[in-house]
Specification:
Order of helices and strands: HHHEEHHEEEEEEEEE
CATH topology of the largest domain: Lipocalin
Strand order of the largest sheet: 3-4-5-6-7-9-10-11
Mean pLDDT: 78
Helix content: 10-25%
Distance between the termini: 74 Å
Strand content: 25-35%
CATH class of the largest domain: Mainly Beta
Length: about 280
């Protein structure tokens, strides 16, 4: 009796089609099993991934299986950790050897390739905040200007470089480079601690390129001389400025997430920042 009742239960076409799609490969009308299998193989991302087939009456769609996004996020996290490990202990690049520079660049390229292109036009807020510089390939040249003209960090001018930050405001388009410095003084005077703020305005070019235009430099003493007012350094007139120092520059954001940012400058400089 139970089998008789079961045989009389109505089965809709949609219900049977849905069940068959979950248990067996889908074959849209007019397409053989062999051609459907070949299409599945052509549409697969690689040999280690599979595709889930969802069938309707007139079409077949393919979606990425659950878990693949999580796997990619895990891989990106691993490559980011590899980059951060490669640049750690290099004193922001000042202590980097040629081998260190190569390892950091290779680790950055792996992360950039896996994460894909950056689109700041769709989410400019990712730039917002105070970012701490943890590595610059240009600092290996032993000057504070990197590949650009800058004061040396050796005996000719006793400057000790402290922390370096970028403060970015996406609403006002302010882009400030903040550098902590310790200036040597003749004995018996103690070193002078100061913070230099190089103020810029920025604009987004395309989806990931940033252009900054210099406005002014302000120096504020800290430590024992913190009571002194800030000093604005006069800007060099354009006619006396070296051709290599135009007051503006461009760099590309090649990777960014909630706490890490990687950029490449217009002179090949690789920089790594973490949110501060």
């Amino acid at each position: 009796m139970a089998s008789l009742l079961h045989s009389r239960l109505p089965l809709s076409h949609n219900h049977s089609l849905s069940n068959s799609c979950q248990s067996f490969p889908c074959h849209p009308p007019g397409r053989s099993k062999r051609s459907t299998q070949r299409l599945l193989e052509e549409r697969s991302y690689d040999s280690k991934r599979t595709l889930i087939c969802q069938s309707g009456i007139d079409e077949v769609t393919f979606i990425e299986p659950p878990g693949s996004k999580e796997a990619k996020a895990e891989l990106i996290g691993s490559l980011k950790l590899k980059l951060l490990s490669a640049v750690s202990g290099l004193n922001r690049g000042l202590a980097a050897s040629d081998d260190d520079l190569k390892k950091a660049d290779e680790a950055a390229k792996e992360l950039e390739s896996c994460a894909g292109a950056v689109d700041l036009a769709a989410d400019l807020d990712k730039l917002q905040g105070r970012w701490k510089l943890i590595y610059s390939s240009a600092f290996s040249s032993r000057t504070l200007g990197g590949s650009r003209p800058g004061p040396p960090t050796g005996r000719l001018l006793p400057i000790t470089l402290g922390q370096v930050f970028q403060r970015i405001d996406v609403l006002s388009k302010d882009f400030d480079n903040i550098v902590e410095l310790e200036l040597g003084a003749p004995w018996p005077f103690p070193p002078v601690e100061a913070t230099a703020t190089l103020a810029h305005k920025f604009e987004l070019i395309g989806s990931s390129m940033i252009k900054i235009v210099f406005e002014k430099t302000t120096v504020k003493t800290t430590g024992n001389l913190s009571q002194l007012p800030p000093l604005e350094v006069p800007r060099i007139p354009d006619q006396f400025r070296p051709p290599s120092n135009t007051g503006s520059g461009e760099f590309e954001v090649t990777y960014i997430d909630s706490d890490t940012r990687v950029t490449r400058g217009d002179r090949g400089e690789l920089r790594v920042f973490v949110i501060s």
